[in-house]
């Protein structure tokens, strides 16, 4: 199962990057990138990798960065998007991993929500400023960041609370079953 999470994690990062410059106009929250919908899964999938070990989670981050760099050449993703994605993933995922690791004594739900609370704003802000500075005006970038953060939290919360029932087997592992 851990390799399914690994492939899903890397694939989610890739699909998010391929769709990062396509937007949905939301009535109250500004612009939302289609990539955000996929990237919302990234943090929770990374938290699944972390259940197996810190090194496995770091391997996932490294693979995602490598695959996305290689695919950027193939799909001709602009360098500013590649740099934005690379730095946002690097800093936000390391923050996510650090918070998740420090909260080992808490339930998986608490670790996921807390690590997302720390890393999602970093990811959204860093990515948007690097990718779109000079392309969009600051108010539009603020709308993108706001919509991005809201969407990622809503999707992650839905995944945690509605899609999966988490049944702890012991202190570090869990079994996932769907409703």
From TrEMBL:
Ranges that cross the membrane: 5-20, 26-45, 52-75, 81-100, 112-136, 142-165
Upper classification of the organism: Bacteria, Pseudomonadati, Pseudomonadota, Gammaproteobacteria, Cardiobacteriales
Domain of life of the native organism: Bacteria
One of the Pfam families matching this protein, by short name: Vut_1
Protein source organism: Wohlfahrtiimonas larvae
Keyword set includes DNA-binding: no
Identification of the protein by name: VUT family protein
Keyword field: Membrane, Transmembrane, Transmembrane helix
Keyword field contains Manganese: no
